[in-house]
């Protein structure tokens, strides 16, 4: 299927911008506390693998979402579908996993909020740039 690769790239990039804000100044400390991670633990790890892998996964998600929406879906429709997909499909699935994993609701709210924002941005960018 024909997709706008610039829109897909920008949508994937938007996941990073949102993530930087969401898991940084907005909810970073709350997320860190809910995850039980210390500052030292966050500094450990292969940042190239973490950020590179996250970008590849965001790129794949944005590409498939573009395929799902089709070419030129329109801004309003695509944004609405992005919001619904993030809130109901992705966050709903996370909710099921978090319930069985006995993870805190506050953690689910943080992660589900990010997912909802991510797919809303995907829809808005893909809808605007078609």
Describe the protein in words.
The chain has 130 residues and is mostly helical. The protein has one domain (5-129). The chain contains 6 helices and no strands. The chain has helices at 5-26, 28-35, 39-43, 47-69, 75-100, 105-129. Helix 4 packs across helix 6 and helix 5 packs antiparallel against helix 6. The longest helix is centred in the last third of the chain and has 26 residues, at 75-100.
Index terms:
130 residues, mainly alpha, 84% helix
- As residue ranges, the low-confidence spans are none
Distance between the termini: 13 Å
Q: Rounded to an integer, what's the Rg over CA atoms? A: 15 Å
Main β-sheet: number of strands, strand sense, barrel status? none
- Overall mean pLDDT stands at 96
Query: Count of helices?
Result: 6
Based on CA inertia axes, which overall geometry fits? globular
Order of helices and strands: HHHHHH
Report helical residue fraction.
over 70%
> How much of the residues is beta strand, in percent?
under 5%
Structural class: mainly alpha
- The number of strands is 0
Q: Domains counted in the coordinates: how many?
A: 1
């Amino acid at each position: 299927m024909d997709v706008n690769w610039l829109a897909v790239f920008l949508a994937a990039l938007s996941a990073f911008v949102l993530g930087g804000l969401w898991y940084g100044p907005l909810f970073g400390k709350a997320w860190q506390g809910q995850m039980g991670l210390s500052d030292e633990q966050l500094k450990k790890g292969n940042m190239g693998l973490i950020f590179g892998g996250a970008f590849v996964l965001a790129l794949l998600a944005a590409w498939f979402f573009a395929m799902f929406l089709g070419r030129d879906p329109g801004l309003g429709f695509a944004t609405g579908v992005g919001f619904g997909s993030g809130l109901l499909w992705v966050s709903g699935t996370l909710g099921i996993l978090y319930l069985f994993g006995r993870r805190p609701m506050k953690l689910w709210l943080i992660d589900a909020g990010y997912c909802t924002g991510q797919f809303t941005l995907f829809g808005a960018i893909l809808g605007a740039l078609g």
